[in-house]
Amino acid sequence: MSDTVPDSAPRPASDVSAGVGFAGLAGLLGWIAFCRSYPALADQFGWAGPHQPLSGPLAALSALLFSSLPMIAWSLLVDKVHRRPSTGIDWALARPMPQRLPVSLVKLVGLWATWAIIAGLYCLARWYWNGNYLFAIEVLATALVPLVALSIPYVLWLDGKLTEPRDHAWHFGAFLLRRDGWHGEEIKRHWRAWIIKGFFTAFMISILPHGFAAVVNADFAAIADDPIRLGLALFELLFVIDVQIGTVGYLLTLRPLDAHIRSGNPFLAGWVAALMCYPPFVFAFMGGQGALGGQYGVLAYEVNAPGWGHWLAGIPALAWAWMIVLVVLTAIYAWATVAFGIRFSNLTYRGVITNGPYRLTRHPAYVSKNLFWWLSVLPFLTTSGSIVDIVRNTVFLGCVSGIYYWRARTEEAHLLGEDAKYRAYHAWAASHAPITRALGSVAALLQRW
Fold first, then answer.
1. Torsion angle, alpha carbons of 284, 415, 253, 186, to 10
2. Can you say whether the dihedral through the CA atoms of 77, 78, 79, 84 is positive or negative?
3. Nearest to 53 by CA among 201, 203, 215
4. Which of 27, 57, 361, 411 could form a disulfide with 70 if both were Cys (CB 3.0 to 4.6 A apart)?
5. Residues 72 and 257 sit within 8 Å (Cβ to Cβ)
6. Exposed, middle or buried: residue 280 (CB in 10 Å: 0-12, 13-18, 19+)?
7. How far from 319 is each of 136, 325, 330, CA to CA, in Å?
8. Helix pair angle (227-251, 57-73), 10° resolution
9. How far, in Å, CA of 55 to CA of 58, rounded?
10. How far is the C-alpha of 28 from the C-alpha of 71, rounded, in Å?
11. pLDDT 10s digit of each residue in the chain, 449 long?
């Protein structure tokens, strides 16, 4: 298969419209503005209770609601995603209850057993009972009983409309109940999807409160003339946008929204590359301080490297310019998540995104994130003046960038095997996406050398 397409070839249509993510972004920013303005609103309307910004964990969780509802509304009312064949739903179908009930009961057994096993894994893994993860476990434990109760009418209703109700959960339930018809490959697909949801949902929820509180309580007026402090506050805001929209993506894996997980990455290399970048594994490889790296990981790249704020503190003009560049890179990173709308999640295939920053490169989040780290950490500038520190920091940050390149390649291999549309987009980007085309030219030049 050729990696290029004719210059006249159109960009494949995205499975998620730009409006979905921007609707969620508007809802999120509106909630943040309300939380920041709550003291003034409470004073004006005489509301009872403390008159202070709403920056607690429950406000951070509520932000998920204000992010998700506009995206759900846009998806259903404007894009009408529930009508797409990829949902597997035939709304004209009216399968009678006696016909669907046996299938639904097996599916519920598979689903509940999956949740019980994941809950058991949470109990066994000690890192879920320390620090920020305690909040995530409390949220998930509180949600468990309502989820079990709601799953019954949801599954019974949906099985009346699905063209093939025997999905991955049914195969796992049939395996547990020793029913005929289950297939091992379907069970593998089921568990790949649920391991991804279980691992990343807990992580995403765990990091919601801190960033949200920082944004709600930030005094932007007091730091408006300080490029370093203002930059840090804007980074926090953009990371909150990324985390909030991303968390919604992990939660709303629903067929009626056409946001279900079609498949999890089947390649071990993809899992290894991805998990190295998240707790608890990240602490062993890259440490626990800074944006990702730290002082104690195998690939620690910030040793005696205080970063851009330290080196540019006495050069205001350059500090402002540097801050703007870093903010733009962080904004692209957040935009890459917003573009997914309700379909964001690692290691999954849930449709193909071709708009927004994905017109520039197939991996806008990885490109912008790594450029941000190089420009913010400045690993080749150290307070120790040690050549060893400079070499180590630079080499190890290069290794981190290499890990993200590895992640990108495994993700591409997964999607290329799943969807003809992604194969068309992959080829289109090689010829038309400016960053991908430029990187391809550099790679070709290096190969010729």
1. -90
2. positive
3. 215
4. 27
5. yes
6. middle
7. 37, 10, 16
8. 60
9. 8
10. 11
11. 444 555 567 999 999 999 999 999 999 999 999 999 999 999 999 998 889 999 999 999 999 999 999 999 999 999 999 999 999 999 999 999 999 999 999 999 999 999 999 999 999 999 999 999 999 999 999 999 999 999 999 999 999 999 999 999 999 999 999 999 999 999 999 999 999 999 999 999 999 999 999 999 999 999 999 999 999 999 999 999 999 999 999 999 999 999 999 999 999 999 999 999 999 988 887 775 444 445 568 899 999 999 999 999 999 999 999 999 999 999 999 999 999 999 999 999 999 999 999 999 999 999 999 999 999 999 999 999 999 999 999 999 999 999 999 999 999 999 999 999 999 999 999 999 999 999 888 877 777 77
Enter the tokens of residue 101: 């009930």
Tokens of 428: 């289109």
CA distance 32 to 30: 5
How many residues make up the chain in this entry? 449
